[in-house]
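My current task is to audit a protein record that another person submitted. I have pasted the whole thing underneath without changing anything:
***
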Amino acid sequence: MLKTLKVLFWFGVFCLSGIFMVASAAYLYLSPQLPSAESYREVQLETPLRILTADHKLIEEIGVRRDPITYEEIPPLMVQAVIASEDARFYSHPGVDFRGLVRGFYGFLRGVNLGGGSTITMQLANNISFDSDNVYARKLKEIPFALRIQQELSKEEILTLYLNLVYFGQGADGISAAAAVYYDKSVDEMTLGEFATMVSLLPCPSVCNPVTDPGRAQGRRDVVINKMLAQGMIDRGQHATALAEPIAARRHLRNIEVNAPYVAEMVRQELFELYGDDIYRLGIEVVTSIDSKMQAAATSALRSGLENYYDRRHGYRGPEAKLPVVGEDPRERWLQDLNVTPTYGNHQPAVVTRVNARSLDVLFRDGSEGTIEWAGLEWARPFISRDNAWPPPQQASDVADVGDLIRVRRTGSALQLGQVPEIQGALVSVSPDNGDILALVGGYDFQYSQVNRALASRPPGSGFKAFLYGAAIEDGYNPATLINDAPFARGDYRPQNFERNFVGPITLRNAFKDSRNVPAVRLYDQLGTSKLFDFAARFGFNTDTFPRNDLTVALGSQDVQPLQMATGYAMIANGGYRIEPTFIKTISTLDGIVYRARQPTVCDDNCDAGSATQSATGAPLAATAVLDGEAETDIQDREPLADTQPAPLKAEQVTDPRVAYIMNTMLRSVVEEGSGRRVNREFERRDLMGKTGTTNGPAEVWFTGFNRDISTSVFVGFDQPEALGESEQGATVAVPIWIDFMKVALADTPENTMPRPNGLVDRLIDRNTGQIARPGQANTTFEVFMAETAPADNSRRPADTSNRNNDESLSTETIF
């Protein structure tokens, strides 16, 4: 017996020695691979990218959310819940619970989970490093690293770092962020049941999430609460109260103050190209050029405009789905369907629960109910085609049935039947002074479609004629020059006016104001491709993509961006000075250290021609305009800026200010007497100019307009081009959206127009012929001319047109 005990003793010593030697060898082998003490002492707590408006209102946070707190700010119940669930011997082991490891290994050999293998310190080690290793290598490295952490940090420091780093699901890193995301609370406001719920997430933050699976989350929470009772951390009263708490967790959105997701995505893409994935964790704060008031107005104007000025007028397309009506009360199934149906724009999903004579009772996803009265239903003529919606409904049963999944929008206290528009659009506003993008909406709803239509290219229609006529004025034409509105042909191409008629000789001003197509094509034929393209490029258009020797360019058949249209018109507004559209003002850290600041190009009345350093590339979002022109891959390597507000550059003069002024007056004529006259009726001010655009079909409709303070372009069309309906024009859809936005943007602002430059003269002319009027003649008006092109008696020809077409292969005609 004694001999057997000796054998067992020495065998045990041998095994322990072997284990010690293997462990020592493993430690010596792994030790050089472990992070240094400085690396985990200086672990940076990740903070998401924050994007702000110019007036510092939050647009978006992108990245993992983490709000670090100190040990003193962690409630004792949270500490106890973590220890009870994750590491009951936390205060007694040296970072590694060898007893627990043996128990876990024994369970592994038996094929059962006995738990206890990983301490809080080991989990912290894993959070700090080893993410890319396989599970066994990671576990081996955790042990020596946990021992090292235990030597360097106190238990309180370990707990603090752990609770600030650990992931709780739903984009929340750390307990403070989790409290905000799940309960919209601070940590000190949470209950015992809520602490236990959060702790139960640690092994499986996605699968066990209380938002996605509240039943499973409740079972796991109760296990944590029972452990706390068993370990004497809470009494039976606290235990009973915590178990009785309902699972109230749900995802609370960040405190987004301004709805500008298309802008946020533009910023994210720009910064990702510069810094890569670091932007999501380094706590970068970006201040954009967006004006919060204008952005809210832009979102509202585009959404309501697409709904009211187009979609509803073309009829009701019916319910999105017909849900089964089974059993005595199918509401539970309906609520499940509603919970997975997103809200888009102004329209929330609802299910029809009852059809009355002239009203519908509906159920919403939160279980509340409402009634859509007849006033909210009578618009719903059934959609047949873009040009036909008939007949008008006579009773509620003509519109919907019980079980229909529909859309409902609220207008004040009333409910209305709605539908998510199939039509899309964009609205973008630019400052003529410095190119700041003041508001940008790239579609009806970013969640519905992430395509940014403010940056997508589509044909602008007649809105591009402003640059054709501007090029002609620069080339020596004047607003009184006559051009023939008569049948015109080049090969098989025979342009037509919208009215399908011809009026004969007409002045350029009247041809532009009335948007006559044939005079525009004839003018382009006279002017030539090179002169138009050169002029348009100076106003920010990428003319490399324009077709050459294609007369339809005069009518806007080429593709351009709404942002380019707004920018080009802004340069007309500011007197012909080049600006670049920009949306990023500064890039800084959350503590206010500025690493990048845009050096703006500013245009004012004192701008000198040629004083800017920017090139006329025509790029809509040139990097030199967005930031400071430098590129690097690590923002942490960059020194803070000494001058966070660099002096602005003066803008380059891209055309004679007199040309810009005459273009202003011609665009004002459109608003006073042409297709934009609704603008004149809606505003009691004389500083608004603009031009509609309608393409063939019509497939796209536009309105771009401005005063000296703001240039705004509105585009409306389907993503896959198709006819909008025979009655649609820029004036019917785009103009009212523009008006709704500009009423807010210009509220309480004085009139502001381009100052009249020197070198212009006024002449009294015959409205129809453009000739100098005779004394006492009727039907006359004053016209503005550049002094050198002002007509003398009976002179209507522009100055020096002899070489106007020497670079064109197209044959040309005289003006008549």
Summary: The longest strand covers residues 348-355.
